[in-house]
Every structure is written in structure tokens, then in C-alpha cells.
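Summary for the funding panel

The consortium committed to producing paired sequence-structure records for every protein in the target list. Below we show the first two records in order, beginning with the earlier of the two.
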Amino acid sequence: HKPYLLPAFSAMRRPAAVEESELDSDSDLEIDARVWRLRRSKALVQAWNGPPSTVRHKDLYAAAKALSKGSCSYWIPAFAKPSSVLQRFALDVFHFHCRRLGWSSKLKALGDAAGAELWAQRRSGRETQERRGMNWHFDKDEDLLDECDLVVHPLIGTATYFTDAGAPLMIFNQPTLEMGPDGPKRDEPRLRRDSAGEIFVVFPRRNLHVSFNGDLLHGVPGSLEEVPGERLALLVNVWVHHRPVGLKPLGTNGKGTPATCNAGPPMRFRKRKCPDTGKELKLHLGQWQLNGLRIPNLSGSPLWRLSSSAFRL
């Protein structure tokens, strides 16, 4: 449980979004090593027919569209007092998932090392098919990786959709990054031979809310788009035992009282095996590539759970 002490940040490029008061040039940056040993949900991916928030869809849609015009991610501390629609929504989502995963009683002790990362993602139907997608990646503290070559994942990632159009989100149970003494190794993905590959496919639907373990590979392949049009989503990552270095703060930790919002029972994913023949979907991430994935017909449901034993890395 000892903090992991990094070299003084004065010798490194300071992330533009970090305030001078947040990161003193003469101080060290501490990483709580427990963030690399988080117990994640056994249900890798779950979805609900509506987000766990009391914010009205109309108000949230307008706020998400405005937010999507920028490129910033924001940090909302776990006990901030919300003063906007976006802050309220992010905290509703954060505390809903913390409650269901058993973290609520531990948050106060974490102080500033617990909170929500918020940003919006919009794709227009007028963009090229390639630009209507999103590259394959693992969610992580991007500035920490750039500056210190350390990988820290959130507890979970979430997406809430506002339209019925656009390419699907795809989430993989493997490969995951190999764990080393200083956390996951950025360039060492690993396939487990003792279990089949699983791919969760989520097509955008108005009000659909999906969550997935924060260490899972995911992306949005534009080639699998079924309904062209605007794809708008609010993304909230749940962080515990770590505050990402480069996020712009949106509110301060205080005496905010978490709302108790529910989302109803999780939705069911339809199951299907990937075929042995047909067009192959190749995944590129850095210097490696995942082969052997062939996608079956996915019409008739927004949620699919595919299995494949043909993954090759």
C-alpha cells in the first residue's frame, strides 16, 4: 500500500491542463500502487436501458453536443457539489457504479483520488467511414503514460448514447496488457490460451448506457456501421485510488451529497459464435495486430456477445 514515488515533475513536460497549484514543480508525484490491483467486476460488460441519472434527456443532449465541440476531458471529484447538468450526470454515473461494485464506503478515505472523468464524443454521418469510427485502445491516464511510461487504467469505463445511429462499440475480453512490477506493460498485450476470446458489441441506441471493466481493449469500427447518421455519446470513466494527471478540473471536492439513482436491471446480450470463414476484421494497436476475427450478421439486436477461438496476436 506504499505510494509509488515518481521522479520530480520539474524535469518533464507539464501537461497543459494541470494547474500550477495542483502539481508543484519541486514535488514528487505519488502513485498509489493499489490502483494496479483493483478487483474488477466479474461481469466484464453490462448495459442498461437508460442511464442512472435524474438529469432530463433533453438537457443532457444539449450539454453533450456543446461539450463535443471541444477536445478536453474533465475531472469531477467524487464529492463535488454539482453546479451544472454535466457535473450532476457524471456524479450520478460515478456513484451508481461505485454502489453496485461495493466502493461507496471506501470513497471518503480516498480523498482526491476518486472521481469521474468526463468527455463527449460526436461523429457526423457526413464524415468518411473511417472518421466515423474510433481507434482501438485501452483507457488509461494518457499524460502519465507520456511523461513516466506508466499505465494506469480506470476502474470502469461507461458510455451513454443519445442517438440510434453510428458504428458500434466493440469491447474485448482479451488481449489484456501483461502486468509487471510497475503496472501493466504498455507494449506487451497477452492472449490467454485457457479461455476463448469474447467480443461485446454495442450498437448506439437512444438512452442506452453501457459499462465495461477499465482495463479492456475497445474501439469503434466504422466499417460495421448499420445506420448512418449522428453518433453522440457522453463518456464517464470511474477512477479510484488515482486521479489522472492531465485532466481539467470541473468542480472541487467538498460536501456534495451523492444522489441515489438507479438504472433498473441490466439488459441481456444475445450470444453468437464467430464464423470460421468470411471477411476478417483486423485490429491494429501500435506495433501489434489481432487477427482471426470474423463477424457474423448482427441485425436484430443492439447488444451482442460473440465468442471466437481463432484469435491470433
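The next record, for a separate protein in the list, is shown here:
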Amino acid sequence: MRFGLSAVFSVVLMVQMAPVRASKNCETKVCKQCIGQGRITRKAIKELDEKLSKKLDQLIKLLQPSASPASTCKDIYEKSLSKGNTAYLLDVGSTKVPVYCHMTTHGLDACGGGGWTLVMKIDGSKQTFHYNSNLWSNKVDFNLPGGKTGLDTHETKLPTYWNTPFNKICLGMKIGQQFKSVVINHQARSLYSLIADGKYRATSLGRNTWKKLIGSRASLQLNCNMEGFNVFKTTSKARIGILSNEYNNCYKPDSRIGFGTGGYPDDSNTCGNEALHGGDNGDQHIKAMGYILVQ
């Protein structure tokens, strides 16, 4: 019995002393063991993230209606199979992909409900979806897990970008806690078909409608007002949006509102509002979180 207690005491003492010895080793030289533990921790976090993603996929399958998978969120809505605003397993091209569907009239401002299919989420403070990014012209997805999580800050580009036909587009911008949206009534085979070739295609929303995306702080110069898809001029550009100028021409616009933007006056702003030199609400530099859905 004495031997057993002594052995236990020795083990406890060794365990207690181990962190001290490790600490001294780390302080005096590069501690390979500590670095190794850090790598193990990062690996564990990555594995946990992958497990959670798989669990979410399983949950989506459980919630999925028993009928054959639909190809769009509107299909699910019209068949009265909606389970609310969440991710659904859609037949996108030749694969099944979990895609966030917005079904209700709540939370999407002017776009309303009826089954909106998520296509992209863009963080205006990042360069992921800058006007010059290849993601606008290729058929490569980006961060698929972000396509399941709703109207949050996780950027994504889903296969719905090149596979999903539509009759209208919902454009939304979130600035702080404010969410605003507008609808473009435009029929197309996919968003890819409107943007990938780089050709300008006009829309007719009007400057005041574009400004609704930003709210009371929105600012645009009074002239030019060139809007649509692949809006490109010498100084400023937008994959979807509007460019304006102080002069009665579109030679060098100094203001814009849009998605997939770039150029003067702030090339780092890839979604939001930029305005200098005579904007109708002064100079503005507003970066937004952008959302593109189709129906």
C-alpha cells in the first residue's frame, strides 16, 4: 500500500512539474514540442470544422422534402415544400449542392419572398470579387460551405452562378445592421451568361433606385449614370452597378454603387458606394456586404 501511494505521488508530481519544465525549455530555446502541439491544435480545429460542415449537410438532407430534389428555390416554394429560410439540397447542373434559399417575405427588404436562390456573397472590404477577379469569368465555385449559411459575412460563389436560369435578380447590401435591396427584372440563362464575356449590358433601374441600396448616406454625381452589367470606364468599373460623373459625359466617372467594383477613387472597395468631386450627398467611401440571389 505504501509503495502504491508513493508511486501515485511520484506520477502526480511528474505531471505537475511537466508544464514547468516545458515552459523553461520554451523560454530557453525553440520548443519543438510546443510547435508540434500548435500544429495539432490547428489540425484539430480544421477537422472539427469539416465535421460540423458534414453534420450540417446531413441535417439539410433530413429536412429536405422526400420528393425529388428541385433545381431552384422557387421550385421548392411553388410545390409548397418550403421549410423556411434555410439551405436545401438542389440539383445544380450534374451535382446536388446545399444552397441557401430565402422563402419568406421577411428579411430581404424590397425583394420579398417566393423562393430566392443564393448565387454570391461579396465582402466589399476584400479583394475576392474585385472587378478583375477571374471568379466573374470562370465556372469555379468559391467557399461552398458559405453558400449554406444565409445572409451572413461568409463570402461565396455557388455553381448557381453558371447553372441557374432566372427572370429576376435580387441585389442586397448590408451596412452595419442596415439591409437594403432592389430587384432587376431581367431574364437570362444564368448570371454567368450576363457577365463572363465582359460585354456591357444595360439596365434601367435609375440612379435613385441604385441609391436605395446604400440608404440615406448614398451619393452619386449627377451625370453619366451608366448602369447595368460590366459597366466599365477609364477610372471606375462595376460588374453590376452604376457609374456617375460630374461632367455631362462618362469619360472619367468618380462615383459608383455596385457589386464587383474597382478603380478610382478607392480600388479596394469591391462592393458598396464611392463618391468624390460633386456627389449629390458629398464624398462617400462605403464598403458593404453584398448578396446576389435569383428567381
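Regarding this second record: The two ends are 77 Å apart (CA to CA). Confidence is low (pLDDT under 50) at residues 1-32.
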